[in-house]
Automatic annotation (TrEMBL):
It holds the Pfam family SLH. This is SLH domain-containing protein. Keywords: Signal. The keyword Glycoprotein does not apply.
Length: 539
């Protein structure tokens, strides 16, 4: 309560013009007032070409489900500018309803609407995204060990809900009729009826009274994990690895310079968002072709008229945020548009600092990435180094790995000596020597005596079969219990895949997904398995 009072007092001082510790005016952040289509529009232009600026999605009081004045939130984060974030339960518990991702961490997971996002190179994203949350137990992502959740850090008034609660959530009481699984350091520590505290080193998975049987996938002492994936409105998977900051809102207003507003397509049902005659003060975040990000508030418009204003302002892309009394815009120490209520989150612009740099060494591998530690380990050992774009290094965790890349990684990981090969397609290529090393070591083989197929994607079963051979040649015993595989490997790989199971390398997962033998292997999944294999032989 004291914190909220202090925040409210700070906001009042700012509005009254009393000097505060606000960030001074900055050349790359320019407030403006313009008349567009008969409306007086308040805007802030942000120069994304300035490498000293960063754009972040932030939560009030650093907790999901809290609210505070927009100005206080901006001040606390040292922001030059801030605009209110996405929709929330303004008249009840203050919980957000849309996605919020901060520095790679999903603070809250929403299920509808368009999203604004931005990566560490200040490249923005605007689009419709639909999430799903999948979980695993015991190292398996297949039935009966898999599970799903409705959301992250959201309390549902629904007995059929399954939700994940992390230390970033404001703690509220969980129903006594439900069941709660406690996961600490990736392992199930206990399973209780009703409520319990959120561990600082893990999370809760809460099952409503109607879905208690779903908790049967968990056992105390077993590993547990989850992942979030996104798909477009057409169902196509979307790669969000590098988009470290996201704020959900909606509807999408402008795309490619054209008005595309369609609230129904984003599952909006509230007449405030679907009606052409429901007008209020509305906000949007947009981007212009001169690489200026724009925060804007527009009075007395419907969402359709808001889209027209965004287009008139020459936005190439734009997405709406929450509206009405929540609409607020702040810049250089004062409000340009004063919100009528506290907000749960916001998008801010501030001076870039060390906190925006991921400790993995890659701008697209954040600390909450399931493969983070493995990727960081391999980088430190000089085994996988990613690619450099400008001054930033990318790992591309969801990118498919080729056979040539795998040959290079294996050579570096296990310090393989030079060898010989007869592959005409590898002679004179960048992977010429690596092909010789892995073939001479007996770890990889070509398609034929003359074809290595270095540019072809490597499959999951190929990676596992190869690593099983590596472990066998280095004396790792195959003493663990063999398992039936839900997705059977090819006949040529079956023996090696089951060898990998008995060596303790895999259960039936490949990275953060079920093992699908013939699927192309992603770099993050390869990193996890390679790191595990290296540890087993002391490298």
């Amino acid at each position: 309560m004291k914190q909220k009072v202090a925040a409210a007092l700070l906001a009042a001082l700012i509005v009254a013009g009393v000097p505060t510790a606000a960030q001074a005016a900055y050349a790359g952040v320019a407030p403006s007032t313009q008349t567009v289509l008969g409306r007086t529009v308040q805007l802030v232009y942000i120069n994304l070409n300035d490498p000293n600026l960063e754009v972040k999605a932030v939560s009030s009081e650093n907790k999901v489900g809290e609210t505070e004045p927009l100005a206080a939130l901006a001040q606390r984060n040292g922001a030059f500018a801030a605009i209110n974030g996405g929709y929330f339960n303004a008249y009840s518990d203050g919980q957000p309803l849309t996605v919020v991702r901060t520095n790679g961490k999903f603070m809250h997971n929403g299920s509808f609407g368009a999203v604004f996002g931005i990566n560490a190179l200040n490249k923005p994203f605007f689009g419709r995204m639909y999430p799903s949350i999948e979980g695993s137990t015991g190292g398996s992502w297949s039935w009966p060990n898999n599970w799903t959740a409705w959301g992250i850090n959201h309390y549902y008034d629904n007995a059929s809900a399954i939700s994940i609660l992390t230390p970033d959530a404001k703690k509220r009481a969980l129903p006594a009729s439900g069941k709660t699984v406690v996961v600490q350091n990736g392992v199930v520590s206990k399973i209780v009826n009703g409520d319990t505290a959120i561990p600082s080193n893990g999370y809760l998975v809460h099952f409503g009274a109607n879905v208690l049987s779903s908790a049967n996938a968990f056992s105390v002492g077993e590993k547990a994990s989850y992942k979030i994936t996104y798909r477009s409105s057409s169902g196509k998977p979307m790669n969000v690895d590098a988009i470290g900051n996201m704020m959900g809102g909606g509807p999408l207003l402008v795309s490619g310079g054209a008005v595309v507003v369609d609230p129904a397509a984003e599952k909006f049902t509230d007449p405030k968002q679907t009606s052409r005659t429901s007008r209020s003060t509305r906000t949007f975040i947009g981007w212009r072709s001169d690489n200026r990000l724009v925060f804007a508030t527009v009075p007395n418009v419907s969402v359709y008229e808001l889209a027209d204003v965004a287009k008139a302002l020459k936005m190439t892309h734009a997405v709406g945020m929450d509206s009405g009394a929540t609409a607020g815009l702040y810049a250089n120490g004062s409000y340009l548009t004063t919100p009528g209520r506290e907000v749960p989150n916001a998008v801010i612009v501030r001076k870039r600092d060390a906190s925006s740099v991921t400790t993995s060494g890659y701008v697209d591998v954040f600390n909450d990435n399931y493969a983070y530690q493995a990727i960081a380990n391999l980088k430190q050992k000089g085994v996988m180094s990613g690619e450099v774009v400008g001054t930033s290094r990318f790992f591309n965790p969801s990118k498919t790995m080729t056979r040539a890349e795998l040959a290079a990684v294996l050579t570096q990981a296990f310090a393989l000596p030079a060898g010989k090969h007869t592959f005409s397609d590898a002679k004179g290529s960048w992977y010429d020597s690596f092909a010789g090393s892995v073939v001479s070591a007996g770890y990889m083989a070509g398609y034929s005596a003359t074809q290595f197929g270095g540019n072809d994607p490597v499959t999951e079963e190929q990676v596992i079969a190869i690593l099983a051979r590596v472990l066998a040649k280095n004396g790792v015993a195959a003493t663990q219990k063999d398992l039936w595989m839900q997705n059977a490997p090819s006949s040529w790989a079956e023996k090696d895949v089951h060898l990998a199971i008995k060596q303790g390398l895999i259960v039936d997962a490949f990275g953060d997904k079920p093992f699908l033998p013939k699927d192309q292997a992603q770099r993050a999944g390869v990193a996890v398995l390679l790191d595990a294999a290296m540890k087993k032989i002391g490298k």
